[in-house]
Structures are given as structure tokens and as C-alpha cells.
Fold this sequence. Notes:
- The protein has helices at residues 14-25, 37-46, 64-74, 87-90, 109-120, and strands at 6-10, 30-34, 51-55, 79-84, 101-104.
- The chain is an alpha/beta fold.
- The model is unreliable at 127-139 (pLDDT under 50).
Amino acid sequence: MPSRVVTLVVEDNDHLRNAEAQALGSCGYDVRACASAEEALQIFASSDVDLLVTDIWLAGPLSGVALARAVKQSRPDVKVMIVSSDGDLLSSEDCRGIADSVLKKPFKLSELQERAVALVRPQPRVGAPTRPDAKLLIF
């Protein structure tokens, strides 16, 4: 049986952080949550994180973009989803190459779940046979 997906949620708004963590936890993920990029880097250093979900603007000296960049430099295999209400910044050079997905606020928790599942679901091996009758279930 494969191990659970370890997800790190970084959001400085307590209400949003708790809602995002609960939504991803209901997908069966092992969720760690914190309010700052600095705390996230500590968790990242001691955990085998598969998915980082971070707000773009965080309290403290490091932004979500800086956090995502540091994570991708350290472990390019980690999937990164950046969440923001600033649509202009989402299309800027800052997010290109570091965000595997960008989610604009406001959003439905079901959309967060769907994007997370799409990012971390196992990809078929090249040349592996596929089953046309197989169905993907999204929680």
C-alpha cells in the first residue's frame, strides 16, 4: 500500500489555513500546516513533503514565492500550488517555473481538492498499458 501524500499548507490567515488543511485531510493526505514561510522551511527540512500549498503573501520576511522557490531548488519533485487573490502577480515571471498550479481566491474547497489530486496522483509510466474502462475518483 502506498504511503500517504504529505502536504504542507502555509497560510497566515488562521481560518483559511484550517479550512484548507481540513479539506486536504479529507482527501486522505497527511497535512502539516503553519502560518509562515520560515516555519514551513523547518517543517520541510524534517518531513518528506510531496505537495506544498502556499499563499503568495505571508507574514514575515519571506513570501510564498520565495518559499516555493527555495522548495523547488531543494527538491524539484515537490509539487507546488500557489494561492493568491492578486491576479496580476499570478501571471508574472515570479511564479513561472516554480508553481505547478496557481489557485486564485476566492475559490471553493472542492477546487483546491481537485487541483491537489491532479498534482499528486501517480502518473502512468511511459509505455505502460492503460485501461480504457478505468475511472478516476476525485474526493
